[in-house]
Design goal:
Blueprint lengths: L5 E5 L6 H7 L4 E15 L5 E18 L1 H11 L7 E8 L5 E8 L10 H13 L4 H6 L2
Antiparallel strand pairs: 1-3, 2-3, 4-5
Length: 140
Amino acid sequence: TGAPARYYFAYGSNLWHKQMRSRAPSASPVSLAVLRGFRWTISARGFANIVMSAPDEVWGLVWLVTAFDEAVLDRYEGVAQRSYDKYDLAVLLPSGEERICLVYVDPTQGEGRPWAEYVDRINAGLKDTLLPEQYVRDVI
């Protein structure tokens, strides 16, 4: 049998279920979650990113992904080209449980403006994944 499934924390365009399912067809949404000690931003490349920031937190969606799904996500996230690096980080579920999740982080910490088509994908994700209203208004 293959490698076991693992948790993946999406905080950008993979909040959009249609995009996520097209990239990782076996993935299933698990729960909203929060990643503490980070801040959501748009990278210099124009895509969502997170940067360490002690007082802040990032909301997102935890997905359960297979090893095949993860390999496909790695390609989309440009892991081989170092567009994004992979980390295992602890997120907090609304139940109070912690989950260790795969999280993609752009190693370029500079900030920029989002691409127009990326704004559309983020907005589609925000319709699919109902993050806290205050967070969306104040952060995203």
